[in-house]
Amino acid sequence: MDWNKTKTIFIVVFSILNIFLYSLYLKQHTETQNVQTIGKTSIEELMKQENITYNLPQAVKNDFSYISANIKMFSKEELESLVSQSIIIVDNTQIESTMNKPISIQNSKGDYHFIDFLTKYVWNGTEYELWEVDKKNQSAMFFQQVDGEPIFYSTNAMLIIHWNEEHEVTKYEQRMLKDFTSFNKKKDLMTQDEAVSSLVTRGYVKQDSKILRVIPGYSTRVQLTTETQVFAPTWNIRVELKDGSIEEHFINAIEGKVIDFQFEKMEEDNPDEELDDDEVDE
Q: Which residues cross the membrane (predicted)?
């Protein structure tokens, strides 16, 4: 047997095989690029046809993952530092506060200004971010933040402030989460553009509308126990319609599901439980 000849044949065969495999890789890579380009072009064309305006910078999230947290249990002793208010603790998890003297939350220009009130009168108040001002009902809704990002519509991570006709706070309700832990980190998360594209192709963004902002946050995924909850990374897309009204859309950044929040406000009065609750007066 001519070993040199056999070796040469093996070299030629393996060379041909490598060339074949490389050409196959190039073909598949090119097809993938074409599909992505076609998809992007289709979305851009669809937005153009529907007259949807979207030209926002990308919000890059490298550490977006599931998080878990425990419900904060309040004690009478730790709330004694909150001055100028009477506090009732409901089920150990909710603060119901009535201000001894109403506190103004309007500045000299007539704009609402909540920072001072949150800092002086609310337990860890700076952890909350303003979400919505309801002028008709004279109230404001705040969401607790984790790493600077809001937890959307979780009644266990919410603050609601109420004021009178003179724009002075008279009372508030508060719930809070603690002991945040990240887990099950994923690399392939829905990007901001993919979230917007998904909403557009599924018809959630109406014709002649403008996408005002896209921000990352979290939404309730599952409640493991009565004390512990899991939250999923979530994109919030705020859209202005042709008539000037605003719509808020939410989409799970891992599963791609559109979230429809069924929000029940914290009850303002619960007289049946007051006899068993701790009360703090300052």
A: 9-26
